[in-house]
Amino acid sequence: MINLYTWATPNGRKISIMLEELGLDYEVSPVDLGKLAQYSPEFGAISPNHKIPAIVDTEPGKDPVVIFESGAILTYLAEKHGQFLAPAGQARYTTFEWLHWQTSALGPMLGQLGFFAVRSQEKAPLAIARFTEEADRLLNVMDKQLQNNTYLAGSEYSIADIASYAWTLAATGYLKEVLKDSLATKPALHRWLQTVGERPAVQRGMAIPQI
Question: pTM of the entire structure?
Answer without folding.
Answer: 0.95
